[in-house]
Structure formats: C-alpha cells, structure tokens
C-alpha cells in the first residue's frame, strides 16, 4: 500500500488515558511499549506540556471549541472559540511522501482537549497541529493568569558574548548577520540546503559534535513537532544559554525552564483572524509579526 493511500484512510487518532509516574494525567495512543520507552515518554517535553495545560485549564478545556485550523506552507494556525490563536511551523521537510491528513475536515468543531492531544502524535504534521493548539491555549492562560507568566525585555542578542561559540539549530536568516557582528563563532545545523550561507552550515546529524562544545544554543521551536527537542536539549547541557526561539514556542515557559532552557522567545497572536489569512496565504514569520503578532520573551531566573 502506498503512503498516500495509507494517509487517506487514516482516521482522527483515538487516545486512551494514561497515568505518568509524575502524577499527571495524559493521553497516549493505545500501543504496547516496553519499560524503557515508557520511562522516556514520562520525561519528554510534549507529554509534560500537554498535561500541564490540562491541569491549569481544568474542566474548562472541554468547553473550548476549535473554530478553525489552517495548514499553510510556512505555518499552521489554530483558532479557538475564545478568540485565541496559536501557530506552529509546518514540518514540510519531515516527509518524503504525501503528508495529507486522512481526518482532514474533522478538526473544526472538536473540543480543544482532543486537538491538543495531537501534540503527542509521532506524525510531525499532526503534532504541529497539537503544538499550535497548545500555543493558543497558552495565550489564553497568559491573559487570565498573567501574574504566573512574567515576561522579559531581553533580546536574544543580549545573551551572546564576543567569545561565545554559538550553535543555531534551524536557520534563522535575519538573525545570522546580527550574531556574526558579535561573534564569528556561529555554526548552524540545518536539514535544508541554504542558498548563499554567510556562515558554517552543517547537517543536523552533526548535533552530537557541535552542541556539547557550544556556549549558547539556539533551538528552533520546530524541534517540538519533529520530536528532536529532547535529544537536542540533552546534548547542550554545558551551554550557558539554551534558548527556544520562534513563533512555535509555547508561551508557557515553566516546563522548559525545568529542563534547562534559559529563555523562551515566542509570538503572541493578537489578531487571530488576520493570522488565519496570513497562514492560508503562505505567509511567514515577518508577516506574522507585522500584521497579527508580537514577540514575547520569558527569562529563567538566574
């Protein structure tokens, strides 16, 4: 059976409740796992993020409806019934075949708790829809419990020193020349082929060699949906600064700070309807920030 045929027959995933050792309730696919795999999943960021959002939102989560989902070339956008929106990077480069969702047409109208659980999927596109939902929900929590989410005015360039060795996972084109004005020691890990790179770019498989020797690690938030975040974070343990960067970053920093991230820098969508239009028309980060979003930073207390 071809990959296209398989994806077209796929139904919306059903999850069964699972209790993790840390006491949080979560949702996971009903598959058999060995003890080693189970232990690994208990500490992964996405199950922890999903469970934390469920705990904070409580029963209200089941009353929040997903009003719209847009999957564009650059970003995925989710609109909730409370007029909160969130985005996540579309993981186009994770597929060698057709990434079509067999349950397309069924997301609109589902409750937010069900679509949030897609973040636990092994399918990067499904997971990205879940991450975008998590981002929309984190915006909601930020508005209702702002005292729990103190923001920072820190800029990522403020965290870099001239003597630092900087590793960037994912290519942030506009940021590259700005970093190079501070330090020449910048290495980028990227899956795509970048035209006219201004610094050293290595395949992402070189992370094990590059990250342990870095003083500053910049992780694209797209690493959440493609499920490389946890491994990459473990490789940068000696870094002074480890930053989660990009509009896919949830505005819910606590689980990330607990794992060693020192700053979370994301985007708050203040105009969800415009966001949906931009996503649908293949708009990117610049357009989001110009028309419907603003940069937000959270800094871990040192």
Q: Which spans of ≥5 residues are poorly predicted at pLDDT below 50? A: 1-10, 15-39
* Cα shape: globular
CATH topology of the largest domain: Enolase-like, domain 1
* CATH class value of the largest domain: Alpha Beta
In sequence order, what are the helices and strands, one letter per element?
HEEHHEEEHHEHEEHEHEHEHHE
- Helix fraction? 25-40%
Q: What share of the residues does DSSP label as strand, in percent?
A: 15-25%
Termini separation comes to 53 Å
> What is the number of beta strands?
12
Biggest beta sheet summary: 7 strands, mixed
Keywords: ATP-binding, Nucleotide-binding
GO molecular function: ATP binding
Organism: Methanosarcina barkeri MS
Protein name: Molybdenum transport ATP-binding protein ModC
General description of the model:
It comes from Methanosarcina barkeri MS. With 302 residues, this protein is of the alpha/beta class. The protein has two domains: 3-148, 2-Layer Sandwich (Enolase-like, domain 1), CATH 3.30.390; 156-299, Rossmann fold (3-Layer(aba) Sandwich). The chain has helices at residues 3-8, 35-43, 45-57, 112-116, 124-144, 176-180, 207-210, 229-235, 254-257, 272-280, 285-291, and strands at 16-19, 25-28, 66-71, 75-80, 85-89, 166-169, 186-189, 200-202, 216-220, 241-245, 263-269, 293-299. Strands 8-7-6-9-10-11-12 form a seven-stranded mixed beta sheet. A three-stranded antiparallel beta sheet has the order 3-4-5. The chain starts with a helix and ends with a strand. The model is unreliable at 1-10 and 15-39 (pLDDT under 50).
């Amino acid at each position: 059976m071809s990959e296209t045929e398989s994806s077209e027959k796929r139904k919306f995933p059903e999850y069964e409740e699972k209790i993790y050792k840390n006491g949080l309730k979560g949702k996971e696919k009903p598959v058999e796992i060995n003890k080693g795999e189970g232990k690994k999943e208990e500490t992964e960021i996405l199950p922890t993020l999903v469970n934390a959002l469920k705990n904070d939102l409580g029963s209200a989560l089941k009353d929040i409806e997903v009003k719209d989902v847009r999957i564009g070339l650059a970003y995925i956008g989710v609109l909730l019934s409370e007029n909160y929106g969130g985005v996540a990077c579309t993981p186009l480069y994770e597929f060698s075949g057709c990434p079509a969702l067999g349950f397309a047409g069924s997301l609109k109208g589902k409750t937010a708790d069900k679509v949030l659980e897609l973040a636990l999927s092994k399918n990067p596109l499904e997971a990205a829809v879940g991450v975008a939902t998590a981002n929309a929900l984190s915006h909601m929590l930020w508005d209702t419990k702002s005292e729990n989410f103190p923001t920072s005015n820190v800029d990522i360039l403020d965290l870099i020193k001239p003597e630092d060795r900087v590793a960037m996972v994912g290519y942030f084109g506009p940021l590259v020349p700005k970093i190079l004005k501070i330090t020449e020691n910048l290495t980028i890990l990227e899956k795509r082929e970048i035209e006219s790179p201004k610094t050293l770019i290595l395949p992402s498989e070189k992370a094990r060699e590059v990250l342990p020797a870095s003083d500053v690690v910049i992780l694209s938030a797209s690493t959440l949906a493609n499920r490389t975040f946890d491994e990459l974070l473990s490789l940068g343990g000696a870094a002074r600064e480890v930053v989660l960067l990009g509009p896919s970053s949830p505005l819910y920093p606590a689980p990330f700070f607990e794992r060693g991230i020192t700053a979370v820098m994301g985007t708050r969508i203040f105009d969800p309807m415009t966001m949906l239009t931009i996503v649908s028309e293949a708009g990117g980060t610049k357009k989001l920030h110009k028309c419907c979003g603003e940069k937000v930073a959270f800094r871990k207390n040192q």
